[in-house]
Amino acid sequence: AQKVTQAQTEISVVEKEDVTLDCVYETRDTTYYLFWYKQPPSGELVFLIRRNSFDEQNEISGRYSWNFQKSTSSFNFTITASQVVDSAVYFCALSEGYGGATNKLIFGTGTLLAVQP
Amino acid sequence: EADIYQTPRYLVIGTGKKITLECSQTMGHDKMYWYQQDPGMELHLIHYSYGVNSTEKGDLSSESTVSRIRTEHFPLTLESARPSHTSQYLCASSELRNTEAFFGQGTRLTVV
Q1: Cα Rg for chain A, rounded, in angstroms?
Q2: pLDDT over 60 (residue A100)
Q3: Which residues of A touch B (CB under 8 A)?
Q4: What pLDDT, on the 0 to 100 scale, is given for residue B61?
């Protein structure tokens, strides 16, 4: 069965600090996809990144970076020089299989990030 | 930018009422989802659909029902609302392949 664990329920940092959000997943499939979403106070979930299981290259997008390590089943998300606008709930998610209609998107429990000015 | 819309954004309703939460997307996506979000943040999949006339129950048992008569429309209905149904309901859609899902802004339902 698939499972996503975000052990950090809440993190509070001061602006300009770097912060890493942890994500550990479980799956029996060799082909799967991992995602990160941001949920600001307005409520909608905003897609940040998708990574497939065959691509372990780390990715950087501005102040955001992602570290995917299959050996530890982790897909961690780092925000560099955090800003108040980064305050949100962040969700990690997993989808098993290669294409196909039956794949479901399963979410972790989320990490609430509060960036203080 | 995502084109998926949910109405209403907020709803306060009395116990026993029948309600329908609307969800529409203009992206032509085949897959659509309904998630229920606890006050404590966790997202639970309650229904999903692969396309027209297909609906499946998710991982969390729900007394709600859904229908998919048109690709763009995936409404969720509660026949008799109860206080335990108070929650945020999020609708999403994606292509059939493992692409990202796009979410609506959610409906915050309060049953009194």
Answers
A1: 14
A2: no
A3: 33, 35, 37, 42-47, 50, 52, 89, 91, 95, 97-107, 109-110, 112
A4: 80
